[in-house]
Amino acid sequence: MNRHQIRKGRATQRSAKPVSGVNANDDSPSQSNRLRSGLALLLLGIAAFAATFLIVRLTQPSPPSVTEGMVWIPGGEFTMGTDEKQGWEEEKPAHRVRVGGFWMDQTEVTNAQFRAFVEATGYVTTAEKKPVWEELRKQMPPGTSKTPDRNLVAGSMVFVVPAGAVDLKDFSLWWKWRPGACWKHPEGPESTLDGKDDHPVIHVSWDDAAAYAKWAGKRLPTEAEWEFAARGGLDGKTYVWGDESAGDSGRFANLWQGKFPEQNTAIDGYERTAPVKSYPANGYGLYDMAGNVWEWCADWYQRDLYRRRAGKGVIDDPRGPDFGLDPKRLFTAQRVHKGGSFLCNDAYCSRYRPSARHGCSPDTGMSHLGFRCVRSAPK
Ligand SMILES: [Ca+2]
Ligand SMILES: [Cu+2]
């Protein structure tokens, strides 16, 4: 889905259906003068540390030190995609891929982290800008008539719980274009981030995520890096924690319990986003690699990519295709996102598995879509 299909849907709404120690192990010296000189050294040390700390603080602006809140992902060979029954067509077939080591954010980028970026740079996100018709038009079939100006308003896609049971084939029944929705106002203009500093930032487009990453001295992960990291060293498992289905247990991740999309029992404690680190980390110490929010990857999305990789042996550090192409949406180039969200459940999409993948136009923001960053190993 993209901003524009929705807007196009609005335009024709009346006629058709819209759309992240030090070990103090020194024993006490037996003589008091040793103790005194030791104490003096310690105080000196503290003073020197404080001075250095201040200098660093004052001379280095906002971006945090590059590996703060990150973990080292060792890299290696793994099985990407899946042949399992739960897998969707675009996840098949399973194939062998090798990635090099890299640093990865332990958590999804939070509202507090994103705010630091916006305050330091004055960055304005895609969802806060009035859409430009000339840009939208490139994503539509030739000859599409102009979207009325009244529909060209800043906003984003918000998940809205429908009043009752709905046709699961029609996502426009629970995804609503909401003018004024953006990262600061996740449910619409009246909503705020109060109490949500440690929740993942949402309503960020791919462009917004890439801009944040650049500012932080990082980059978005490739799809292969993301999936390798998500698996946490468990090769060929269905879930990031192993083989046990999450079901309605609410134990493993922030997912959907109850009947999607009209009834959310939130047994896991959260109806929408959850603070990062609310659920157990995977084998590499990464949190929320399943559920909570989808995460943008660097790659362009092509639905049939894995079929074209089949039989080609181990693929080395793939960077994705040169352009995005989904045969079902010919005019909309898409970027990959991974990991599923708080909306995922087995009955509807089951896309909280590490092999699951999805595409979205780079200018789209949604209330279940965020990101995290990686950093290449120093050469
Ligand atoms: Ca939940
Ligand atoms: Cu899902």
Low-confidence stretches: 4-31, 56-61
Bound molecules: calcium ion, copper (II) ion
| Radius of gyration from the alpha-carbon trace, in angstroms | 23 Å
**Assembly status:** single chain
Looking at the overall shape, the CATH architecture of the largest domain is: Alpha-Beta Complex
The succession of helices and strands, N to C, reads HHEEEEHHEEHHEHEEEEE
- H/I helix tally: 7
The CATH class of the largest domain: Alpha Beta
CATH topology-level fold name of the largest domain? paralog of FGE (formylglycine-generating enzyme)
Ends: how far apart?
Answer: 39 Å
Taken together, the total number of domains comes to 2
Q: Biggest sheet, strands in spatial order? A: 10-9-7-11
Bulk shape: globular
Roughly what percent helix?
Answer: 10-25%
Chain-averaged pLDDT:
87
CATH superfamily of the largest domain: paralog of FGE (formylglycine-generating enzyme)
What percent of residues are in strands? 5-15%
Number of strands: 12
Q: How would you classify the helix and strand content by structural class?
A: alpha+beta
Question: Which sheet architecture does the biggest sheet show?
Answer: 4 strands, mixed
